[in-house]
Specification:
about 250 residues; mainly beta; Double-stranded beta-helix; seven-stranded antiparallel beta sheet
Length: about 250
Amino acid sequence: MFQLNNFLNNQNMKVVNQMGPFRVFEHEKDLSVNPMNAVTAYFASEMNVRKRQVFVELGKTGCITQAGAMQWMLGNVEMTSGVKGVGNLLGKMASSAVTKESAIKPAYRGNGVMMLEPTYKHILLIDVSEWGSIVLDDGLFLACEDTIQQKTVARSNVSSAVLGKEGLFNLSLIGNGIAALESPVPKEELIEFNLENDVVKIDGNMAIAWSGSLNFTVEKSGKSLLGSAVSGEGLVNVYRGTGKILMAPTA
């Protein structure tokens, strides 16, 4: 049995999103300031630069997090490394080397609660079942329910990685459950494309997540290489098929 004081009733912490076992808290102001940085902290808050944290209620499902993401946990909660032998460890290390994600993602299970470390990035809560499978840009993954399977997916061709500046491999989430992602821009700025046997062409690596069902290639923006060069667009990232794309309008 435990109690949490000055937390759920803290006037400086506001729940801005909730889905499954996750609640996203936003610190309205940075109260730990001194006269030297008070002006900076004030204008940062006014411009939506705020600390955000993910609160997790464990019970029916466990939680898998990025390494080092846990700040504190309360109750009968146990942490495991998620490694199932030497072979599994080597596989995770190889996956980490190509996806730039942490090799070991700890799993937390039991009856209790936990809080993740604060971040200035924006937290997105995604229902993975609505995507079928979702492919993530590097560094986007923060946490997910342990009912979700993680896989490393490779590009269908080398050109899409080298020319598209997206990398050869990405982390993919598959299954039923909720995932918490760290986005460089708020949800209000993200553009969502819903394709049904159609195509989206994006100039640059602005897509932060896309359905695993989509075929990703890099192509000329025009019919000819000369036309592409004259237009100033050159090569574009092309997503074909049926699925969804989340795109950040700014780098």
